[in-house]
Design goal:
- The chain is an alpha/beta fold.
- Helices cover 39% and strands 21% of the residues.
- Helix 6 packs parallel to helix 7.
- The protein is globular and about 40 Å long.
- The termini are far apart.
- The model has no long low-confidence stretch (mean pLDDT 96).
Length: 209
C-alpha cells in the first residue's frame, strides 16, 4: 500500500455524486488527472466550511468536482460563481452540477476568466479558488485582489506543479515559469499571509490581511 492510498483510506470518502463525477471524468474526459479528487476535495470542502463564505469565485471549473466541494461550505444564502474557458465541457459540467442539491447555489459562466472577473467586480468575495491557466496566475491574482474582502481567502492549485517548480529542466516551460512568478509574487507581497501545502500538486492558502 502506498502512502497516498493510506491517506485516502483514512480520509472521509466521496459522497455518491462526487464519486460518480470522478468515475465519469476518468472514463470520458481528457486530462482527467486535473480533477481534484477525494483528498483535495475534502480539504477544499473543510476550508470552505471553516470560512463559511457567502460568495465564492472559482477560476477553472473542469468537470465541476471542486465547485461542488467548495459549495459545501456556503452560507444558506451563498453563491458560487465558477468560470470555465473550455466551452466543450459546458454540457458535462451542467450535467454534473445538476446531480447535486447544491447546484442551485452555483452559477457557471463559460468564457475567459480575466474578462468575466471584470464583469463580476461589483461585489466582493469571501473566497477565491484559482485553478485556471497557469501562465496567467499573476494576472488573476491582480484582478481578484480588490474583489476579496479584507481578511478573505485565496486558494491556488498546482503551485508545486509536480515538482517542476524547482526543476531547472522546466526553466523554459511557460506554465512552470508562470507558477514560479506567482509563488514569488505572493511571497513578496506584504498584503498577504500564505502557506504552500504539499497536497497533491501543491495548494497555496493565501489570506488577504
Amino acid at each position: 500500500m502506498s502512502l497516498d492510498e493510506y491517506i485516502e483510506q483514512h480520509s472521509t470518502p466521496e459522497n455518491n455524486v462526487l464519486e460518480q463525477i470522478s468515475r465519469s471524468t476518468n472514463l470520458h474526459v481528457l486530462n482527467a488527472h486535473m480533477l481534484s479528487g477525494q483528498v483535495q476535495g475534502r480539504v477544499l470542502s473543510f476550508l470552505s466550511q471553516m470560512i463559511h463564505p457567502n460568495r465564492i469565485l472559482e477560476l477553472g471549473t473542469f468537470t465541476g468536482y471542486s465547485a461542488l466541494c467548495l459549495a459545501e461550505g456556503l452560507s444558506d444564502s451563498g453563491e458560487l460563481i465558477t468560470i470555465e474557458h473550455n466551452d466543450e465541457l459546458e454540457d458535462t459540467i451542467r450535467h454534473n452540477l445538476s446531480l447535486s442539491p447544491l447546484s442551485s447555489k452555483i452559477r457557471l459562466i463559460i468564457g475567459d476568466a480575466a474578462e468575466v472577473i471584470r464583469v463580476e467586480s461589483r461585489k466582493s468575495f469571501d473566497l477565491v479558488f484559482i485553478d485556471a491557466d497557469k501562465r496567467e496566475y499573476c494576472t488573476y491574482l491582480d484582478l481578484v485582489y480588490d474583489l476579496v474582502r479584507p481578511g478573505g481567502w485565496i486558494l491556488a492549485d498546482n503551485t508545486l506543479w509536480d515538482g517542476h517548480i524547482i526543476d531547472p529542466a522546466y526553466d523554459r516551460d511557460k506554465q512552470t515559469v508562470g507558477l514560479r512568478e506567482f509563488n514569488d509574487k505572493v511571497a513578496a507581497d506584504e498584503r498577504f499571509e500564505q502557506v504552500i501545502l504539499p497536497l497533491r500538486d501543491g495548494l497555496t492558502i493565501i489570506r488577504k490581511v
